[in-house]
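User: Hey, quick favor. My workstation is busy. Could you predict this chain's structure for me?
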Amino acid sequence: MRSLGEFAEPDGLSQLLLRLTVSSTVYCLSHMSSPWGFKVAARARPAFHLLTAGSALLEVEGEPRPIRLTAGDLVIIPRGEAHTVKDSPKSEVQWLDSILERTPPVNGRLDHGGGGQLSELLCGGFAVDQLTGRPLLEALPTVVLLRGSEGRAPEWLVGLIRMIASEMASSGPGSEAVVTRLTDALLAQALRQCLVEVDRAGGGVPSVSDPSIAKALRLVREHPDQAWSVPRMAAAVSMSRSAFAERFRAATGEAPMRHLTRYRMARAAEYLRGTQAGIREIARLTGYDSEVSVTKAFRRQFGVAPGAYRKANAAR
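Assistant: No problem, here it is.
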């Protein structure tokens, strides 16, 4: 992974990440005993859930499949889409706001469910600076998931999780403020890591403060298989073709279709390195209509055919 210092542009990704600040609101530490389930309405601010014990099933509006969470997983919903969290597919769900009204948290703890197997979640929302933070959030996918390894979070996250859990358990003077500050640090670090990973994969995280262009970049990354054109990109963000093309180049330094091709080829390379998908399937996933067209584009980008690229990387 590149260090932030390797981004040389004075207004590039490194500068935006260094200025990224997060102000979180921890709603509660939830002790959920199966069966249990709650749903959260769409909100203007991002949401997060940190699973510190047990397991859960996350369903997010607009996402085709549920996501199974295990202890140590942190999930962030950058644009606050409606979502449901429950212990199993058949569990009844209730609005989280209604649960909180009926059984208000005691010392920051919410106890809810049927008395079975326990899961523990830290739930909340957060805000970022409108000028520097919002374009970065627009660059992220609908769901950001940082998984633990065999129930254990990445090392940089372990210490923060431990301190948050300890402070939540203590309920001592000032513990609420400490938890909030720790959660701010946790979320900021998680977002930074995810954004650097997106850029490293070739996604071109927008080093811009133009929310319309950031949204267009996100749409292209989430749906590279779509038949994108400059007019279609412009229409997706309610802009004219000429204005969109001009602002896109000013924001990213390259033309829209050049960026699209670069990202598609980065995805194709990922499929070749990490899966057994055939060239025809990779063509479909990256928006090309045939094996021939994706092979030509890949050779132009990398100087080798897809098969040779896969063979070379398999030997490493």
